[in-house]
């Protein structure tokens, strides 16, 4: 069996996670934290590229990694036009659309394909992207809103959601494409999604602020409440509540879940109420996804950083175990998922897709 060397690059809002794989084996992983005071020096996310590339070069040096002859470089996808799930070859069109955030998602993940291209120019290897946040496999009914011409969009933790679903399907001796799952990523952001036979057909728009409130996000609110809030907040303050300072941040001035959970453990009534309310909202979305799947649910899968707290799983099980078995996968599997996706392509088990430069869905045929 051939030995393939795969570099995985995963830029996040405040860190860059890098891993080197030989086939399925992870040789070296490093998650480098970027202080917000440093990142604020850059006017745009794209301006961070040289700084982040220095992080990659330090990673290679510290790990004594020679990338010459590398077989694949996988960069986490960002805000290109929406795509269906899968592994994609990185080309000039994908790089440019991601750099320009054509799909509307402006997030640090947009640096992943750019960093892969930088290294490819120096070391070669195929360049790949897998399951970016803008994966759109929504069923038609999930797109419709009550305002003509306004449609729901799909932005989620697609990479980890689909990786968790594949991992669980394998653990029960089945294929992801043959199962129906409700998969929840629960961390600083929260995605609750319905997966039907390998397609993520519905879920909250986590990137747009829809769904449960989270450690950093205010979550869904009645429009009338939003309008009242706008009277007392600037546009920038309101945007911050949607993505950075809402949720725990609004109540406590910090999104540090460890700090909040210590208050919960100490019996602080307010902290207990807020913590349990967040999980309560996750439970409500799980219930709604079960109806989308018409009750035919093979499993409810929980993943993400907040699963390090056992009571999160316990509270969800208490309310949802009757729907389907609940299984927790604490943490995330993004690095592993990207490496395994590249490995399938290198072994000829899966063909890498070509990015079209167009959104996967752009309205109904009968739209005026």
Automatic annotation (TrEMBL):
UniProt keywords, alphabetically: ATP-binding, Cytoplasm, Kinase, Nucleotide-binding, Transferase
A GO-annotated cellular component: cytoplasm
Sample GO molecular function, one term: acetate kinase activity
Compartment(s) where it occurs, according to its Swiss-Prot or TrEMBL record: Cytoplasm
SUPFAM superfamilies hit by this protein: Actin-like ATPase domain
EC assignment: 2.7.2.7
Major subcellular site: cytoplasm
Gene3D superfamilies membership: 3.30.420.40
Example GO biological process: acetate metabolic process
Residues passing through the membrane, by range: none
Pfam families cross-referenced by the UniProt entry: Acetate_kinase (PF00871)
Catalytic activity reported: butanoate + ATP = butanoyl phosphate + ADP
Alphabetized NCBIfam families for the sequence: butyr_kinase, PRK03011.1-5
Family: Belongs to the acetokinase family.
The name this protein goes by in its record: Probable butyrate kinase
Lineage: Bacteria, Bacillati, Bacillota, Clostridia, Lachnospirales
């Amino acid at each position: 069996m051939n030995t393939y060397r795969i570099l995985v690059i995963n830029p996040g809002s405040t860190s860059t996670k890098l891993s080197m794989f030989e086939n399925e084996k992870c040789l070296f992983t490093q998650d480098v934290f970027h202080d917000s005071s440093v990142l604020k020096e850059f006017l745009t996310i794209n301006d961070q590229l040289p700084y982040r590339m220095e992080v990659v070069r330090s990673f290679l040096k510290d790990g004594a990694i020679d990338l010459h002859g590398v077989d694949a470089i996988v960069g986490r996808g960002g805000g290109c036009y929406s795509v269906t799930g899968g592994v994609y070859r990185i080309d000039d069109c994908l790089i440019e659309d991601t750099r320009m955030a054509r799909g509307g998602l402006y997030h640090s993940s947009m640096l992943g394909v750019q960093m892969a291209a930088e290294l490819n120019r120096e070391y070669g290897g195929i360049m790949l992207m897998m399951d970016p946040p803008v994966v759109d496999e929504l069923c038609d009914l999930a797109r419709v809103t009550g305002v003509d011409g306004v449609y729901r969009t799909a932005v989620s933790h697609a990479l980890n959601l689909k990786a968790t679903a594949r991992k669980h399907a394998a653990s029960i001796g089945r294929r992801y494409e043959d199962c129906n799952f409700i998969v929840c990523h629960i961390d600083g952001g929260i995605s609750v999604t319905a997966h039907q036979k390998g397609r993520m057909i519905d879920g909250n728009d986590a990137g747009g602020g829809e769904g449960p409130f989270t450690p950093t996000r205010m979550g869904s609110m009645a429009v009338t409440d939003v309008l009242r809030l706008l009277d007392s907040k600037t546009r920038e303050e309101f945007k911050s509540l949607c993505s950075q300072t809402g949720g725990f941040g609004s109540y406590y001035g910090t999104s540090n879940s460890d700090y909040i959970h210590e208050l919960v453990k100490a019996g602080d009534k307010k902290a207990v109420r807020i913590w349990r309310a967040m999980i309560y909202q996750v439970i409500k979305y799980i219930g709604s996804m079960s109806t989308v799947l018409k009750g035919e649910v093979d499993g409810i899968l929980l993943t993400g950083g907040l699963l390090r707290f056992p009571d999160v799983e316990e509270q969800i099980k208490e309310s949802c175990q009757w729907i389907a078995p609940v299984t927790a996968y604490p943490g995330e599997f993004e690095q592993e998922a990207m490496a395994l996706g590249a490995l399938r392509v290198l072994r000829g088990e899966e063909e890498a897709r070509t990015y079209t430069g167009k959104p996967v869905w752009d309205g109904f045929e009968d739209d005026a």
